[in-house]
Amino acid sequence: MDVDEFRVRGKEMVDYICMYMNTLRKRRVTPSVEPGYLRAALPSEAPMHPEPWDDVMGDIESKIMPGVTHWQHPHFHAYFPAGNAYPSILGDMLSAGIGCIGFSWAASPACTELEVIMLDWMGKAIGLPPAFLPFEEGSKGGGVIEGSASECVLVSMLAARAAGIKRLKHQFPTVDEGLLLSKLIAYCSKEAHSCVEKAAMISFVKLRILQPDEHGCLRGETLKEAMEEDEEAGLVPFFVATTLGTTSCCSFDNLPEIGPVVRKFPSVWLHVDAAYAGSSFLCPEHKYHLAGIEYADSFNTNPNKLMLTAFDCSLLWVTNKYLLTSALVVDPLYLQHCYDHTAIDYRHWGIPLSRRFRSLKLWFMLRSYGISGLQKYVRRHCELAKYFEQLVRKDSRFEVVNQVKLGLVCFRLLGSPDENHETVDELNKKLLSTMNASGKIHMVPASVRDQYVIRFCVVYQHATREDIEYAWDTITDFATELLEGPDKERDLNEERARRHRAALAHKRSFFVRMVSDPKIYNPAINKTPPPMPTSPGTPPSVAPASPDTPSEAGSIQLVPSTPKQSSWISWPLAFFFQSVDHDANDLPLRFRHLDTMVRLKSPNHGRRGSSPGASPERRAPSPSAN
Ligand code: PLP
């Protein structure tokens, strides 16, 4: 394709996108294809000779589109919004056109400098404290665009891990880093996004997952108890991940309580994940959610969720860029340049070397909407969710199960009073799967207070009250059919049997996967018993529920000193050991891992008793060399 043809085809492509946007309503929201549909429709090898452009484009409509889930569809209410405003699409287009790779300042100075400035504009607009901003007097802070919120969490954890190991190494210079690593423990709420657990797996650290309160909010006291208990047990708290706007139910952790707790422990890194909610802080009326942010070391948000910006655009700010970059720096000769002491080289701020000119998207978005235009969008988004909430509350067959603060409403059918918890869950699963299968609307479930709920998110950029009413009419039509249809009981039984047969397939299914619920990817969490009260003064014990539980599981439940807290620890690489042959091991694997850890701590003392958790060695105050 030469430049003249590109000019023509480029305009045609814009026309095609406009046609797509304008006719979205006529399409099903979700495709009705089976896995492998596309392989059957395409040749098994790449063409040897060039094909006419019109043929290639023609196949988009006939072959690709039937398998597309239309995230920009007015009836798509799943997950969170996937920003896609035209100025950001044009920003992406220009970035592709310029085609520079901005890994260092010298590799394309404008690419780096615009990113620094856009992060400064954004940080100020959402109300981050000066410590996060690059140009403030005495600030060591700054921001960067990463590929996803998961990456933001991971690099923050890696930076905290490096700082934690460095500190321990200073204290215990002769102890091997591997042993020091085994002492580190991170924390998050059960409501945190699964990317925190993934980050812990990659970082090879333990993660203690804590029970939030009844509103899905992690409280300071819960964190304090857990951190003190672990410190007492010889572990070293190093990272706390909090969330403002959780994925399941858009709850907010209590930063003003958590911050002071974290600060009581030496050098613990506090991260705040506001992937969805962060853009709402552009509005003064939502800024109160940022209370306590002054305690944080890092903060991330995705303008590609609630700020209309096309994926990918995940913003991460830190208060100490040196801690971040010292964890990620590698500096071969071919990447060095004569300004590397005075300019930022973003390759040290993340995992990949190569990076696109993503700040152009923010440039076009911020300038063409202005903060006021973005505020207007956020406000309409929240108002429509409130409207949907009102509609649900008016229908006595349903309940709303979350506090609706932004654009997410979690609701469920109540079922009849004689129906038990499981039957009501089944009823809601049935309702959701029928609606999704119809192609008329798309939502996903979540688990809120251990109940199966349906998440309704306002997603469509130009959503109106009519769209919300359409959604509610569709939901209530399906609900009426389900509740008053002729064979409700038989239907439910059939559904249960079908689910049982297809359990594995279901776990993988796009339509029924829970959002950010550790139970879904970690079956052990379902199996761990409720917390057992122990007598006062009893040391915390690590208690596999039964000999076979831990090797099946990705976690071990900590029996807490008070019955109110239930939490579990995710162990690095636990999943790799799931298929371990139980008979070949006298102790389950992770149990033995812990045992190894205990013995490393205190080589001169033999194991006392069969429970490592109850052994005094586990309570050793600090790591020691073997
Ligand atoms: N954190 C929160 C609170 C989220 O809601 C999500 C996704 O919805 C993520 C992290 C992961 O986002 P990403 O897909 O950008 O990694």
UniProtKB/TrEMBL annotation:
Residues 522-559, 600-626 are annotated as: Disordered. The keyword Transmembrane does not apply. GO terms for biological process: amino acid metabolic process; carboxylic acid metabolic process. It comes from the Eukaryota. Residues 528-542 have a biased composition (Pro residues). Its cofactor is pyridoxal 5'-phosphate. GO terms for molecular function: carboxy-lyase activity; pyridoxal phosphate binding. The modification N6-(pyridoxal phosphate)lysine is found at residue 305. Belongs to the group II decarboxylase family. PANTHER family: GROUP II PYRIDOXAL-5-PHOSPHATE DECARBOXYLASE, MIP05841P. This is Tyrosine decarboxylase.
